[in-house]
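Lecture notes, unit on protein representations.

Consider one protein chain, 126 amino acids long.
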Amino acid sequence: QVQLAESGGGLVQAGVSLRLSCAASGLTFSRGAMGWFRQAAGKEREFVAAIRLSNSNTYYADSVKGRFTISRDNAKNTMYLQMNSLKPEDTAVYHCAATTRVGVIDYPQTNQYDYWGQGTQVTVSS
């Protein structure tokens, strides 16, 4: 049974950095993909970043490109999201997600992912 658990959220000021973690259990960390999504109050869940587990290729939403970095640690079965230069518009609940799909994956689409974490709140004040 796959379980994902996010941590690292909090209340920060604009301009600072924060690192989120997603600990995965029951997941083969060499196939499929993992991703980060976020959902602000009253808005739909949106794609942030993804990483292909077989080759570590990464993908980002335009809104975070150059500020956020997704990575993984195979030894710890953990995925990270390093968030720099945070903005108030980054405020949201951040969820990690995983899929065991092989082949083509449409990373920004939520229906591509089979497993989801409960989320961690990130609040950025101006």
